Amino acid sequence: MQRFAETCEAIAATTKKLQKTATVADYFRSRKVEEAAASAAFLSGKAFPAGEETRLQVGGSLLWRLLAELSGKTEAALAAAYRKHGDLGAVAAEVLPPRPGQGLQVLELGRIFREISAARGPAAKTVLVRHMLSRASPLEAKYVIKIMTGDLRIGLKESLVEEAIAKALAVPLAQVQRANMLLGDIGETLRLAWEGQLAQAQMRMFHPMGFMLASPVDSAKAALSYFADAAVEDKYDGIRAQAHVAEGEVKFFSRTRDEITASFPELPHRLAALAHDAILDGEIVAWEYKEPDSGRARPFGILQQRLGRKRVSERMLREVPVAYLVFDVLYAKGQLLIDRPLRERGQWLDDLFSLIGHRAGKGTERKSGPPGGLDFQSAAEEDAGPGRVMRAAVFRAASPEQLERLFSAAQARGNEGLMIKDLNSAYLPGKRGQSWLKMKRELATLDVVVTAVEYGHGKRVGVLSDYTFAVRAANPARLVNIGKAYSGLSDAEIAEMTQWFLDHTLEDQGFRRTVEPKIVLQVAFNNMMRSHRHDSGYALRFPRIVRLRPDKSAEEADTIERVREIFDKQSS
Ligand code: AMP
Fold it and tell me: For the whole prediction, is pTM greater than 0.70?
């Protein structure tokens, strides 16, 4: 991948967009199709295709330790290089020794990234990353690390890579953009363009499309300022799943585009009854079955027991039944529907579900369900075991007051909050825009103590902006870590805190510093899980730093008992 790295250097060296795309186009043309396709994602700054949410889970401190080990440099020398470049990749290029025989292939990099992502725990990841970095030339290592830290910074967005593909292969840009949107995979898009098959990107059954994503909003008023005509749904806390149904065959795909059908064996036959091929979008949740008409979603922590299993025991099926709550349809009856407005897609969905209702109803009438959704399952079917497919309920809100009421009702049903969707919007695969908004509740907030800090990335380079934090435990009195979050503080506050942390460092580990446990923060989060990652035995889901609490001392921070209380409340 020496050529790849040199191309990145050339792209970084110019600010002119046309020149950048020309350089990338030349590079694509000089490669074989496989290599050009693999490079396309990397040039967009991503280790994996955009539509995937696969993560490497390799932190800056692990890379820092490996750079120290492989370069033999002292901490001080590394820290000086880091201050000079503000970028771990550039540090690697400077400190790693060139050795004969070094050299990675672009094609193997994709495979190695997947191995790293699949490896569990820092020890296993370290072995793989060490091996990879020791085989790379210093310049290659620079770009490998930049891709790993999501910090390519050569001024090349995915949209420019699309332009480069169009230019290199002399195909219309609009076609490239559409294919990439449908596939969520710029490499696959390049391959199709290369083979003159862009039109084939229309839609592939059993190849998951990108998922449309939502932007957060803080208040009901803000939510309604984006569009007037809003569809409102509960925000269920489960896992997103795209269902493909064709000729009685059903497969479910996760946001990482992995097939997850085997984890939910009770669901496919519910959809197999659909009279038409279809692609549906929805959320799989743990479902509490009460009376036939009055179930509700259970917390994510409960669903978690069902995840990642190849085989699900009878006991699991009984104890953690699930439901698939469908809120969108991307394809049905031979037609791609993503360009139709949500209003119309909703109608299609209602029609499809009425079909399931008739076909699967075994003579029982279609019932309108609880506020949590319309349920098309008959009592007879329930005897055959749980597992439901439901149309997620859709509400309307025209005023902030109505929205607030729906929000409280969603919370009362145990859901995370609301999704507010523009009825006139198209489905944009893989895009996070303003057409879907999410309004979430905070489970609770905790006052925590900062115990360690790390340097940030991107515009947070050179400042200590990633905080690890703890709560208090007794007997013996100590602090136990419970989470880590990027700072949500203002730039001025971060600058001030950085200075404070530098002055109050207990141990300088280069990229990371343990610090005097004196700074108290208020953190909000959506959920809490049991976890071995932190010594408290718990981890916060989506922690966000709300504000500094200079009015509180570490002795006044929350305790592990309070954490247990919140956890128990959430699980009850
Ligand atoms: P977040 O994961 O907080 O960014 O919120 C977006 C996620 O909420 C989606 O990816 C879905 O998994 C989930 N979600 C739950 N209910 C809905 C809904 N009614 N519409 C869309 N997404 C939903």
Answer: no
